Amino acid sequence: MDFIGAGTVINVLAVVAGALAGMAVGGRLPAHTREVVTDCLGLVTLLMAGLSAVDVTSPALADAVGTGAPVLIVLGSLLIGSIVGSLLRIEERLGRLAGRVQAVVGARRDDSEGRERFVEGWLTASLLFCVGPLTILGTLDDGLGRGIDKLALKSVLDAFAALAFASTFGVGVLMSAVSVGVVQGSLTLVGVALGAVLPDAHIAALTATGGLVLVGISLRLLQIRQIPVGDMLPALVVAPLLTQLVVALG
Fold this sequence. Notes:
Blueprint: H1 6-26, H2 31-53, H3 59-65, H4 69-88, H5 90-104, H6 112-130, H7 133-143, H8 149-169, H9 171-194, H10 200-221, H11 235-249
């Protein structure tokens, strides 16, 4: 494939292939094994969350906003984003969406446990696949015609992650391929139209904020606390905007 957007197409196909393989395997596993797999996914998600959150110490972010501001930017992004998300009832709307999608694929609408698994699978996979420097830098490179090397690497990683997650969460992970297509396709168009819109500092703030949202996902997977991570999603939009505001005021 040699066209603008090829990297996203490959990534979507990789997620679909991995999810289908995981769904085929998952039904054959006993309940205890699936629980162990979920615990493993929770721990790996926590690891990936830590790797993302550490971007709060990024030199690019510190140079742009000062050494004391990065943590405050992440905190402000989470607070503002969570307030907006809770007012918009994003978590509740995701549950309703899950019910509708499950009805389409043949699941019962009153299956609350299945609905929760769908939401967690879709949300966890979407965050893992759509938040991070590889996503942003890779899609912008693709849009600017600089190649798809980053997205090719990301596709391989996402395929294995989708297989692991879908073996436990099923169709919700498969639906995350839509998220990948929409998010990465949009960022590719941004790259085509405007070039590299997000400086390194803004990417670091977004990645660090996304890392903390992933911490919330991992706590849910490990059944420690049911944090309403859906309501926190607007924080991913607030983070680069808040960074730009601090840069402008500085």
